[in-house]
Amino acid sequence: MRFTRTDAVFALLALATLASWWLGEGAAVSGRHLGTIASLAVLALAAFKGAWIALDYMELRSAPALWRRAVLGWLVVVLGLITLFSVAL
């Protein structure tokens, strides 16, 4: 069995999911709000996960640049708005 790039991306996605869960679960157990730094860390992990999924599983890495820019730009806009509203409130 050969270890491929897809396997590595899957492992990184699983680790990022565990890290996000650990940050969120820590806040839930303590009964407190997640906190700004932890919230930004979770959003950063979501950004990396979204980019890895789009580039590797949706195969946008080999797609025309316009499609890559559109999908990754959408991801940046959505996460930017979430960050803006979470920090502002």
Write the layout of secondary structure elements.
Layout: H1 5-30, H2 36-57, H3 65-88
Helix pairs in contact: 1-2, 2-3
Report on the architecture of this protein.
The chain has 89 residues and is mainly α. The chain has one domain. It has three helices and no strands. Helix 1 runs antiparallel to helix 2 and helix 2 runs antiparallel to helix 3. The longest helix is centred in the first third of the chain and has 26 residues. The termini are far apart.
Descriptors for this entry?
89 residues, mainly alpha
Total of helices: 3
Distance between the termini: 50 Å
Question: Helix-strand pattern, N to C?
Answer: HHH
Quaternary assembly: single chain
User: What's the average pLDDT?
Assistant: 88
For the report, how would you describe the main beta sheet?
Answer: none
Low-confidence stretches: none
Q: What share of residues is helical?
A: over 70%
Task: Briefly characterize the structure.
The chain is an all-alpha fold. The protein has helices at residues 5-30, 36-57, 65-88.
